[in-house]
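Backbone-to-sequence.
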């Protein structure tokens, strides 16, 4: 058990321990001002007993302003106790299929509305940087899935979400690497092609998909080739040609949607996908390191209540 994992239980139950835990994860042994990045800072103490201020304030001698560990992160302007934030970060990172806002509400006592917004902030922190990430290389599995809703009729078309109110999602998984998941406007060759082009370098990649017509044209651009498995003919593996890994990622999402969240609006679905992708991409880390990385990922990000 590493040091972070040992500290988390106390940080989830004691406000001072929570503040110190978050400060260590963000600043390490050398704290600095989040506004001017000056190292000439010191803690503000209460008169008489010398204890830390109730808001765990710091003071910067350069910009002459007070600040806390919340400033410049998704925690900024939040009145939720830091110990509840620590618990929510821990639960989101340690629960393989996610944790619902209702569960956070039960365990911490904050209102359900506050717990829901708290979890959306954490999911926003776990998402990739808004700057376009480097394009993927190597062997890439791409597939789409449909979640939520109920089919309007039975038949072969409903299996792919056609004629239903299910929401399509698409995932790109690099073998031995990371996964990225998106909510396309619609499952068309143009929409899927745009997502693949933005995320994969065709000159240095090999594409593996199912037999869907949506991948036919885009697959011709890949220098490493485009291999397919025909699920319609019950073909799932042919040598190393398979989409089982990306479908395994989809199974985690579906189990989380059905068993943990039960219902997710289309408006916020991309945040839940970011949460599942973060846990998958950090699958080789222990819970303590995963929480530490999540806290560091929260720096420099803000999610306001009325933002999409």
């Amino acid at each position: 058990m590493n040091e972070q994992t040992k500290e988390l239980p106390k940080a989830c139950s004691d406000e001072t321990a929570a503040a110190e835990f978050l400060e260590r994860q963000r600043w390490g042994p050398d704290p600095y001002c989040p506004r001017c990045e000056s190292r000439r800072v010191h803690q503000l103490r209460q008169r008489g007993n010398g204890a830390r201020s109730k808001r765990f304030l710091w003071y910067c001698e350069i910009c002459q302003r007070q600040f806390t560990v919340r400033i410049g992160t998704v925690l900024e302007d939040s009145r939720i106790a830091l110990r509840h934030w620590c618990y929510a970060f821990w639960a989101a990172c340690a629960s393989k299929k996610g944790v619902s806002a209702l569960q956070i509400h039960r365990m911490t006592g904050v209102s359900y509305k506050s717990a829901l917004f708290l979890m959306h902030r954490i999911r926003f922190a776990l998402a990739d940087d808004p700057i376009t990430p480097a394009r993927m290389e190597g062997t890439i599995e791409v597939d789409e899935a449909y979640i939520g809703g109920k089919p309007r009729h039975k038949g072969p078309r409903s299996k792919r979400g056609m004629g239903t109110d299910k929401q399509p999602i698409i995932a790109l998984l690099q073998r031995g690497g990371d996964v990225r998941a998106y909510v396309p406007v619609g499952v068309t060759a143009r929409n899927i092609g745009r997502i693949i082009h933005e995320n994969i370098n065709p000159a240095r990649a090999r594409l593996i998909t199912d037999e869907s017509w949506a991948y036919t044209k885009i697959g011709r651009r890949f220098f490493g080739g485009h291999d397919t498995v025909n699920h319609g003919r019950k073909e799932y593996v042919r040598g190393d040609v398979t989409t089982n890994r990306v479908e395994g990622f989809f199974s985690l999402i579906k189990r989380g949607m059905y068993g943990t969240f039960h219902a997710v609006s289309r408006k916020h679905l991309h945040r839940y996908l970011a949460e599942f992708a973060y846990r998958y991409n950090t699958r080789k880390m222990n819970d303590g390191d995963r929480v530490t990385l999540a806290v560091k990922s929260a720096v420099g990000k803000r999610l306001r209540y009325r933002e999409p």
